Every structure is written in structure tokens, then in C-alpha cells.
Amino acid sequence: MIPSSQSQESELMIPCGKQDEGVLQKSTSRVSATFKRDDRLPQRTLSDEMFSVPIQLSIFEHILSDDKGPDIETVAMIRPVAEQESETESDTENARLELNQLFVECTFIAIVKPPSPCTLSLDMPGRLENKVVLVTGAGSGIGLESSLLFAQEGANVLLVDIHLANAEKGASLIAERFPNVKALATKADVGKEADVKDAVNLAVKVFGRLDVMFNNAGIMHPEDDNALNTEERIWDLTMQINLKGVWWGCKYAILAMRQNSVDETKGLHVGGSIINTASFVALMGAATPQLAYTASKGGVLAMTRELAMVHAREGIRLNSLCPGPLKTPLLMDFLNTEEKRQRRLVHLPMGRFGEAVELARAALFLASDESSYVTGADFTVDGGLSSAYVTPIGEPALAPPASLI
């Protein structure tokens, strides 16, 4: 039940917390709103007791589970009452008209449907409930954090990594933390087309479909340098994994997603979401060269944009995720001296490397239906690096949120 409150001059928001509460929205003109039970409405609507909450109100808004506005019965229960007059009945049409004129100070006897249970319950479905996700490079860094977050949000996850033991550890963590979803680990080298094809087929075979493909696996070779010093074998290996591997991931994911059917009972639909890990280096140049890596990630951006256009009307969305420098094993192995690390940190406006989980949250948005109108995008999460010209001096004020690390 919403507790009574003393009148306050500051703006007050009425909290939403339980299914049996009435709900008022933000306001600007103070009134006193009185709630009570009405036997003509469902018993779950309000508690038995009357309670009064002084608020500031410009308009009394309904929040209904179907988002279609007030239903006719509920509207009829809203009756403006003069401060010193007794309550009078109003018919349905008058109540509907008066609902649009609640800008004046008055007292309401009101019965309001609460928000849909899915917006109130702590057991609400996750953002990826019942969906099937395949993550490459899932054994560590962004891939591992994303796999855990996807599972937390209700997805069944296939963790793919060239190091099977790492993928299996991730699957075990999911089984331990999120027993209501399924997780499976498999070994694959994304530099081999057959491995990528087999991984996608395994996801479909085990889970029945593929809704999200996260092409995240990649390498940053320590011998990758400038055009004069980078050997062809380093170039070819980098392209094989970072660019061809993403191409094959897209290819077989698209074929699988074309087979997806609608299941309204589970919130599933046709098509799917493909996320390709690129990098901020594909957007800007660096005097600390890693030419093959940069070129491969530029290719990922271009390929993703084109595939997004080709498959847009099939319900298949493709987006690139462009991380800035992160505190992941991949980058920390590359920046293996303090001098190398400081060479990067000086350019970061926030004064720190990002955390893998911060990228995982961006990947979750692109994987979920919350990004249903997003395709062909280069989603940059880089701590402001790509917007910087001259960075601040001094120690950074903020560390990563404690809840993330």
C-alpha cells in the first residue's frame, strides 16, 4: 500500500511497488488523491483500506497492462468531487470527458489499474527470455561477460571458444548462477568455415533455433605492426579470424534465422539479431600501429552495414559493437608494459580502461528487442575516446561502478 504523506512543496512521484496499488504519475499542481476499493472492479486492484496521498498533479494518468489507455469501466470510476460537496455519481461519458480536464485542484475518488504484473514483479521475464544465443570467443573477456549476462536475462547460450576448457568454465558458471536456463560449451576455430557452420548447427539442433549471434572472437597479434614491418602471414591470419570468421558467422546465422518461426507464447519471432565485434580503431587512426587488426575491424564495419541492408526486410538485424580499450586479457597481453598502457590511457577522457561487462551491457541491448529499430549501426562504447581532441589532466574522478566489477 502507498503510505500517507504530509503535503510537500517539492514535486513528488508516487512509487509503484505492488500489484494492489493504484498509480499516479508525475505532476505540477497539488491536489489530494484519495483511493478506495470498489467492488465493481477486480479484487486485485487496490487494498481494502482507504488512503490519501497529497501530490502535485497536472493530469491523472492511467497505466494499463495493455497500454491502450483507460478501459470504459475504469474511466467511469473516476469522479471529480468538489472540496465541500458530497460525492455524486457520473455516467460513463461524463467521466470520460472529465478525465481530460483534471488540471484544476480537486479531490479524486479513484480506482486505477496497476501496471502490468511484468513491470512490477521481481520475477519478471528477462530481456532475452526463451531466446537462443551463440557467442564466439566466449571463454574470456567480452564474450564471457556477455554469455553470463545473456543467461541472466533468460537466454539459452552456446558458448564457443577455441579453448574448450574456458568455454566449459563459462557454461558451468551459468549452470550454477542461472539454473533456469541451459548452457552448452563447444570448441571451434572461427578461422575455419566448417567449425563455424558446425557451431551454428549445434545451437539449432540442441535448442531448436538461433535468435542471437554474437560474432565476438578475434585476435590481436603481437607482431602486428605498420605496413613496412607486418609480415604477410600475420596479415593473413588476422584476416582469417577477424574478418572471414565474422563473415562465416553471419552467413550461417542468417541461414538459421530464416528458419525461425513465431511463438507468441514464448515471445519469439522471425529473424534475429547479429552482433559483430569491431573496434574503435576502425573509426580513427593510431600512431601505435596494428595495421592488420585495424583493417580487419574496418572490414567488419563495412560488411555489417551492407548485410544489414540486404537482410533488413527478413527481420534480421545486424549491428557492429565498437569497444574502446578494455581491461581484457586480449588487450592487456598486447599492452604488456606500463609504458604501453600509459600510452593509451593518456588519450582516454575518463582516464581508465573499460570493463568487459560494460561492453556486455551494450551487447545485451543489441541482442534484445529493445533495439528492434536498430540495424546497420556502429555502436561505439569507448569512454569518449573517439570524441576526444585534448583530454583532461589529473586523476580520474570515477572508477567503474562497483556493481559491475
UniProtKB/TrEMBL annotation:
Signal peptide positions (record): none
GO molecular function: oxidoreductase activity
InterPro entries assigned: NAD(P)-bd_dom_sf, SDR_fam
A Pfam family annotated for this UniProt entry: adh_short_C2
Keywords for this protein: Oxidoreductase
Domain of life of the native organism: Eukaryota
Family, as annotated: Belongs to the short-chain dehydrogenases/reductases (SDR) family.
Full protein name: Short-chain dehydrogenase
